[in-house]
Amino acid sequence: MSAASPPAALAEESEGSEGSKGSKGSAGPGRSGRLRRARWRRGAVPYLLLAPALLTFGVFKAYPVIDSLLLSFTTGSGAATRDAGLANYRRLLDDPLFWTALRNTGEILVVQVPLMLGLALLMAVGINSALVRWRTVWRLGVFMPSVTGLVATGVMFAYLLKADDGAVNWLLNAVGLPSVDWLGQPVWARMAVVVVLTWHYTGYNAVIYLAGLQSIPRELYEAAMVDGAGPIRRFTSITVPALRPVLLFTVVLSTIGTLQLFDEPYVLTGGGPDNATLTVSMYLYQNGFRYFDFGYASAIAYALTLLVSVLGAVQMRLMGEKDK
Q1: Residues 252, 315: contact at Cβ < 8 Å?
Q2: What's phi and psi for 181, nearest 5 deg?
Q3: Average pLDDT of the residues in 67-93
Q4: Of 213, 169, 215, whose CA–CA distance to 192 is shortest?
Q5: What does the DSSP 8-state code read for residue 293?
Q6: CB-neighbour burial class of residue 100 (10 A; exposed 0-12, middle 13-18, buried 19+)
Q7: Residue 147 CB contacts under 8 Å (≥ 6 apart), including other chains
Q8: What is the model's pLDDT at position 1?
Q9: What is the DSSP string of 215-234?
Q10: What mean pLDDT do residues 83-105 have?
Q11: How far apart are CA 46 and CA 53, in angstroms?
């Protein structure tokens, strides 16, 4: 009995060791599962924090955009809505009033954006000059028009540009010039819209240009002066190249804003006279909320979106090639 006891003890010990190995093996998958769950929780935290913003974007941005796209392929309104395929887009190509609105918008864009940005750049260069004192006061003064409400701006200029008793015609008569029917003649009505837009947004762009000018090292101008470069040469060789990213930013934003022009002509002229100041956004509004033709209005919106995208891409391409 005593001789057989050691092998039995060894057998029991081996069985215990195998059982302990088995218990360690069973604990391994459980531990790795807990690690995976902990890792998943850590990875899910950023998405949980982003969820409110993503949900808001989806409900108030993405869904209306998609729904508007689907709506552009329908006709009618309410329960009478039915599929129309590409009928709204074909109608758009044959609609003379749409092309009138697009031409008006383009004419305002071609005149107003270069005028506004040119004045803004000159204004920023003047304020940035070392000869100018109280720079903060000047900066505040040129920026004030841009914080004025668009409707308030339109109403104010509607009174100033009245044909009978407007302040502008009163000043013209005071210096011996005849009165102008600013809001009653097509050409002058478009010029009135250009004046209002220029007054409202020039200071805003001037402040942006001023920030860009203040980031240009003074040493570049001093070196150019030592080499004999005059003011115009310094402006064209140093200022404009250094401001190219800022210029691109303002040109693209101003183009997009002008293509979406609505408030100023709506308040100032109502699109008249004889649709001379009717813009694409105003025509979209008329079809959607005056005639309740939401399918056609959605088609106009997507045509405008395509136009804005193409012009923005062309501008970035043309102004960005020189950086390569």
Answers
A1: yes
A2: -85, 80
A3: 86
A4: 169
A5: -
A6: middle
A7: none
A8: 44
A9: TS-HHHHHHHHHTT--HHHH
A10: 93
A11: 12
User: Which residues fall within 8 angstroms of residue 259, CB to CB, at 6 or more apart?
Assistant: 105, 109, 280, 304, 307, 308, 311
Please give the model's pTM, rounded to 2 decimal places: 0.80
Residue given tokens 């250009």 in the structure block = 194
Phi, psi (degrees; rounded to nearest 5) at 75: -140, 160
H-assigned helices in the chain: 5-57, 63-71, 87-93, 96-128, 135-143, 150-160, 167-174, 186-214, 218-226, 231-234, 240-242, 244-259, 263-268, 280-285, 294-320
Whether the bond between 265 and the residue before it is cis, its omega within 30 degrees of 0, is no
pLDDT at 76 over 80: no
Q: How far apart are CA 252 and CA 117, in angstroms?
A: 11
* Helix axes of 244-259 and 96-128: crossing angle, nearest 10 degrees: 150
Q: For residue 280, what are the contacts with CB-CB under 8 A and spacing of at least 6? A: 98, 101, 102, 105, 259, 300, 303, 304
Residue with tokens 């009163």: 170
Q: What is the mean pLDDT of the chain?
A: 85
Buried b (16+ CB within 10 A) or exposed e, 212-231: bbeeeeeeebeebeeeebee
